[in-house]
């Protein structure tokens, strides 16, 4: 089966050649039709940049794809004409961004904003039909009285409602791929669950593959069937979501799980990862996680561990993963609720 | 864009000076448009038997040195003054808007080149630039509009560009890009409407400034040519009689003063209404 999106060895750099900073360094992962992939990592781990770069949404210069390929249904986006990529964006790929409060144009009615997504990709449809379709999409994402609400402006809606509108825009053209970048981060906890439901429904209706970017392991555990853990612009671990969360093979994944609060955990059960994620300017030598890693050895500071397959459906970048996988050296106190 | 009884309109109404100024300008505009039906007089009708008359029932604002009725001339002069003010700003906007939008949106080297060029234009005092342009183009209403309008282009370009810079990094612009909007669509449908507020405010204030500039050219005899009644020209023609018949230049002077003041107040009111975040000093 041809993957919907296949990212291979993608490297994104900022700045002039020679003095460039690598925001994304050799990232490889893919997502199959209908599947939901969760991408986890701390802020600045490159999880969003990977996808923005893949779909030509980073301003270039200063950003550029210096290595690797991005194949969307077999076509390489990294080498495609910018205009062609634009025709794919919004039509075959829908985006849901983090900030519903600011991702809608304040001086355009929401009906028009949804309709625009349709008109942009279908010159023949006309605004009237597009607006009618916008109203349908609004009821699809659970907006009551869509006819009336379509004529209102974004400031008249709550964050959750606006995120529904953003989702309606994202699925307006029945995309093959839905990219949700921290879709619930800016929302109240009570609204988060609703929005995740809307995304799940939207995905079922369109049959789109979904990439869910989040720093929230709980959200990922609920939604994703596969998981990619990123750190400092690299993939640390990837595999089946349940496997990874229950039996993490990379110390970073394990540490992430340990510091995520669950319903039962008390304050003493939460173990934050010491230190900070490295800045692009001062990337540590060897494995980028080694300064914060509990299990570090001398080799970790000198050599970058290879990102390699472990078993049938697991990839890990750690020098000691083979031993870990056999002996189970990494003990995880509280597994996340899956 | 703004619904009825919207907070913006409420805020504008709350500002008394602006509200009164707006009413004054509306009355002035209406009277200027309806001039022929308000007065039967001809602004250029000479009456050498009645020169430099004072205020009277027959001539509300008296007569000038050629016996022309000043009230009638003020009325017809309103047309020319408002037209040159509004026309100049429209002309200025027509040039500055596309350049500012483009320069701000594209950024990079193009933006730098355009902005350095604008900096160079800033070195010329605006009125001097208008004067120089009229000297080249010749006098007359159209040329005054072009000359005065051109002098508003550099600050307008800066204003538009700064608006674009602040809007272009907004999330909804990225969203529009992710939907597949082309650059031109993003500029016209997403960036322009969101930068319009400050542009409207500044344009209103500039109408006042351009009325003064046009009147200044008229005063110097470089504007609309006699015998056409234009406020600045009336001022200029009256200056020989400043001691014998001061009303001949006081009346047009007052009209220029009050009208420009009104445009400034309306501009202030619009700024407070459209952008409540900017606080008054």
UniProtKB/TrEMBL annotation, chain B:
Q: Which residues form the ABC transmembrane type-1 domain?
A: 78-267
Q: Which GO terms describe its biological process?
A: transmembrane transport
Q: Please name the InterPro entries in this protein's record.
A: BP-dependent_transpt_permease, MetI-like, MetI-like_sf, OppC_N
Which keywords describe this protein according to UniProt? Cell membrane, Membrane, Transmembrane, Transmembrane helix, Transport
| Assigned GO CC terms | plasma membrane
Membrane topology, as annotated, equals: Multi-pass membrane protein
The principal localisation class reads membrane
Q: Where are the transmembrane segments?
A: 21-39, 82-109, 121-146, 199-220, 241-266
Q: Where found? A: Cell membrane
Q: Which Pfam families match?
A: BPD_transp_1 (PF00528), OppC_N (PF12911)
Q: Does the keyword Cell membrane apply?
A: yes
Coiled coil (residue ranges): none
PANTHER family attached to this UniProt entry: OLIGOPEPTIDE TRANSPORT SYSTEM PERMEASE PROTEIN APPC (PTHR43386), PEPTIDE ABC TRANSPORTER PERMEASE PROTEIN (PTHR43386:SF25)
State the family named in the UniProt similarity comment for this chain. Answer: Belongs to the binding-protein-dependent transport system permease family.
Name-wise, this protein is ABC transporter permease
Species per Swiss-Prot/TrEMBL record? Borborobacter arsenicus
């Amino acid at each position: 089966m041809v993957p919907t999106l296949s990212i291979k060895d993608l490297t994104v750099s900022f700045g002039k050649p020679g003095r460039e900073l690598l925001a994304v360094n050799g990232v490889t992962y893919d997502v199959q039709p209908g599947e939901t992939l969760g991408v986890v990592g701390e802020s600045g781990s490159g999880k969003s940049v990977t996808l923005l770069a893949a779909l030509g949404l980073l301003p270039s210069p200063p950003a550029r794809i210096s290595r690797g390929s991005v194949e969307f249904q077999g076509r390489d986006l990294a080498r495609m004409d910018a205009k062609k990529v634009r025709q794919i964006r919004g039509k075959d790929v829908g985006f849901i961004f983090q900030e519903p409060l600011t991702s809608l144009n304040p001086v355009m009615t929401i009906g028009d904003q949804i309709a625009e997504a349709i008109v942009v990709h279908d010159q023949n449809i006309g605004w009237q039909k597009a607006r009618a379709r916008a109203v349908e999409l609004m009821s699809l994402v659970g907006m009551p009285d869509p006819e009336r609400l379509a004529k209102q402006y974004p400031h008249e809606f709550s964050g959750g409602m606006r995120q529904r509108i953003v989702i309606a825009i994202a699925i307006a053209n029945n995309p093959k791929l839905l990219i949700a970048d921290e879709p619930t981060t800016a929302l109240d906890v009570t609204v988060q669950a609703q929005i995740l439901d809307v995304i799940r429904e939207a995905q079922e209706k369109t049959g789109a593959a979904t990439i869910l970017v989040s720093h929230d392991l709980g959200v990922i555990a609920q939604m994703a069937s596969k998981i990619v853990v990123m750190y400092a612009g690299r993939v640390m671990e990837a595999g089946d979501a349940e496997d990874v969360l229950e039996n993490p093979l990379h110390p970073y994944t394990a540490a992430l799980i340990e510091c995520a609060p669950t319903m039962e955990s008390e304050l003493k059960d939460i173990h934050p990862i010491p230190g900070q994620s490295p800045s692009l300017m001062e990337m540590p030598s060897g494995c980028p996680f080694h300064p914060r890693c509990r299990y570090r050895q001398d080799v970790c500071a000198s050599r970058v561990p290879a990102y390699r397959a472990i078993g049938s459906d697991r990839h890990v970048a750690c020098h000691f993963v083979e031993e870990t996988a056999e002996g189970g050296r990494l003990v995880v106190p509280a597994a996340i609720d899956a | 864009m703004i619904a009825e009884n919207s907070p913006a309109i409420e805020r504008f109404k709350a500002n008394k000076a602006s509200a009164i100024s707006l009413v004054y300008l509306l009355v002035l505009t209406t009277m200027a448009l309806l001039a022929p039906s308000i007065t039967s007089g001809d602004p250029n009708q000479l009456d050498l038997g009645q020169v430099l008359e004072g205020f009277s029932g027959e001539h509300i604002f008296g007569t000038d040195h050629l016996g022309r009725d000043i009230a009638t001339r003020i009325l017809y002069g309103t047309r020319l003054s408002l037209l040159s003010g509004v026309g100049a700003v429209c002309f200025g906007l027509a040039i500055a808007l596309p350049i500012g939008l483009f320069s701000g949106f594209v950024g990079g080297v193009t933006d730098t080149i355009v902005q350095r060029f604008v900096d160079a234009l800033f070195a010329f005092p605006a009125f001097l630039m208008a004067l120089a342009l009229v000297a080249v183009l010749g006098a007359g209403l159209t040329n005054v509009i072009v000359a005065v309008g051109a002098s508003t282009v550099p600050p307008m370009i800066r204003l538009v560009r700064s608006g674009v810079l602040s809007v272009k990094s907004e999330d909804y612009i990225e969203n529009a890009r992710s939907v597949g909007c082309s650059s031109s669509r993003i500029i016209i449908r997403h960036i322009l409407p969101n930068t319009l507020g400050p542009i409207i405010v500044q344009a209103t204030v500039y109408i006042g400034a351009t009325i003064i500039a046009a009147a200044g050219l008229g005063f110097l005899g470089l504007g609309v040519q006699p015998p056409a009644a234009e406020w600045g020209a009336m001022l200029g023609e009256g200056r020989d009689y400043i001691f014998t018949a001061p009303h001949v230049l006081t009346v047009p002077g007052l009209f220029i003063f009050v009208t420009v003041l009104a445009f400034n107040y309306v501009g202030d009111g619009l700024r407070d209404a459209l952008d409540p975040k900017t606080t008054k000093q």
